[in-house]
Amino acid sequence: MMHLKAACAALLAVACTSPIAAQGKVDPISQVLAATAGNWTGKLQYRDYGTNQWEGLPVKIRIAVQPDGVTLVRSAAFDDGPKVGTVWITTISQFDPARGSESYASFRKGRELDTGTRTVAFAEPPRDQTHWTMVTLETRIDGNSPAQVRETTTRDGASMITLKEVNPLDDDKDEWLPRNRTVLVRSGR
User: What burial class does residue 62 get, using C-beta atoms within 10 Å of its C-beta: 0-12 exposed, 13-18 middle, 19+ buried?
Assistant: First the structure.
């Protein structure tokens, strides 16, 4: 009986340290991103620099987490007025916990494929899966110029706000300018 217990303990120790067991471990960023799955409604807002006010377009977003727990498919639809009509943007993203980064590909009719990789971190430790602030950062082309792009997403229960800011790299300033924000409320699973 003693040999059986020792054998079981050894087998359990090997199983718990195997790569397969390690794959079952879910990091906090993956957990909170997966918890955004569902339907959201709200506004896609842009800063009117003349009035310094936020102007918004109604938006509906559907986020689906894939079975791997780190890949998200996000479909967004907003009405861009009578000339353009409904605009659909579909983004597929995957978080890499080992690198602390998210790679994405974004599709929008009439535009080139938008791809990139950005770092992802919590601004502070999350309270739980529905109360947190996360910041992404990348360097990319924005408005035909190189820029740092920072998105700060704050989830507070059933609401989620993402502020996108840019810091142009060719203006010799270290100044973050608001580009747009998405203000959402969960509207279903």
Answer: middle
For residue 135, the Cα-to-chain-centroid distance in whole angstroms is 9
Using CA atoms, how far residue 165 sits from 32, 143, 177, 189, in Å, is 22, 12, 5, 29
Q: How far is CA 31 from the centre of its chain?
A: 12
- The H or E element containing residue 189 is none
Measure the CA–CA gap between 80 and 2, rounded to whole angstroms: 72
- All domains of the chain, ordered by start, with CATH? 26-188 (2.40.128.20)
* pLDDT, position 24: 54
* DSSP strand pairing (145-156 vs 71-79): unpaired
Backbone angles phi, psi at 103, to 5 degrees: -105, 145
Question: Sign of the CA dihedral 139, 151, 120, 59?
Answer: negative
Q: 72, 48, 47, 71: which is closest to 61 by C-alpha?
A: 72
Query: pLDDT tens digits for 30-57?
Result: 999 999 999 999 999 998 878 888 999 9
- Confidence band for 139, pLDDT divided at 50, 70 and 90: very high
Confidence at residue 143, expressed as pLDDT on a 0 to 100 scale: 83
